[in-house]
Amino acid sequence: MKKIEIDEGYFFGMGVFETIAVEAGTPLFLKEHLQRMRKGLETLQISCSEFETLTEARIKKECSQIPYKRGVLKICVSDKNVFFQTRENTYYAKQYEKGFTTKVTSVRRNETSPFTYVKSLNSGDTILEKRKAGKAGFSEAIFLNTKGKLAEGAVSNVFFIKDKKIYTPTVSSGILPGILRDYIIKTYDVLEKEIALDEVTQYDEMFLTNSLMGIMPVSCLEGEKKFLMEQGKNMAKMYLKRFTKL
């Protein structure tokens, strides 16, 4: 196992990471993940010589050795380290049929912080709120920003559907621009807008995205607002059929 050097990544969370879905040894959206990682390093003013020499061929070799049909490659980069970690992708078929349940957390996304827009190692509030939501029986925690507008999920981007039109919070609302979020915006007709919490009842459907789950329909918010899942399920099935071995 590679020895990890102590640096500002350990002391202050000054580092970035990407979690990449690997299907039968092939990484999905690899170029997009690496581009976001480079941008994050620039934002945090981190220069890592090992990352600068990291090639796609090296990453693909790591992916080819993952012993799972549906795997995950996590790449962490800080000043002195490039670290790889692999595991199985544990999202399963029944979840897409049942849909996720979501809960709004009292913790706010800080839309003025550069860390909000970077997939950084400084993610303590995200982990804690995700765990709290899970203990309360919910699949995902949803964050508002400091102005009370919808931002994102703990590990996901948020979308809504009304009259077959798709909506999602603006990046300036305080979100990490997700790889799958970009895919949805490029693939479908999506309107980016500020969304207040009390507007949620106006929407017919809700779904979440991230690189590992793809597109996940949502059945309810706070256990009160119930959503239809027809269009979300269809989008999820199309994505799974195209990109995954599920």
Helix content: 25-40%
CATH architecture of the largest domain: Alpha-Beta Barrel
| CATH topology descriptor of the largest domain | D-amino Acid Aminotransferase, Chain A, domain 2
Gap between N and C termini, in Å?
Answer: 31 Å
Give the integer mean of the pLDDT values: 97
Strand content: 25-35%
Comma- or semicolon-separated keywords:
single chain, 246 residues, alpha+beta, D-amino Acid Aminotransferase, Chain A, domain 1, D-amino Acid Aminotransferase, Chain A, domain 2, 2 domains, nine-stranded mixed β-sheet, 8 helices, 30% helix, globular
Tell me what the structure shows:
By secondary structure, the protein is of the alpha+beta class. The protein has two domains: 8-88, D-amino Acid Aminotransferase, Chain A, domain 1 (2-Layer Sandwich); 93-243, D-amino Acid Aminotransferase, subunit A, domain 2 (D-amino Acid Aminotransferase, Chain A, domain 2). The chain is built from eight helices and 13 strands. It has helices at residues 8-12, 30-43, 49-52, 56-64, 93-98, 124-135, 179-187, 230-243, and strands at residues 15-23, 26-27, 70-78, 82-88, 100-109, 140-145, 150-153, 157-162, 165-169, 190-193, 205-210, 214-221, 225-226. Strands 5, 6, 7, 8, 9, 10, 11, 12 and 13 form a nine-stranded mixed β-sheet that branches. 38% of the residues are buried.
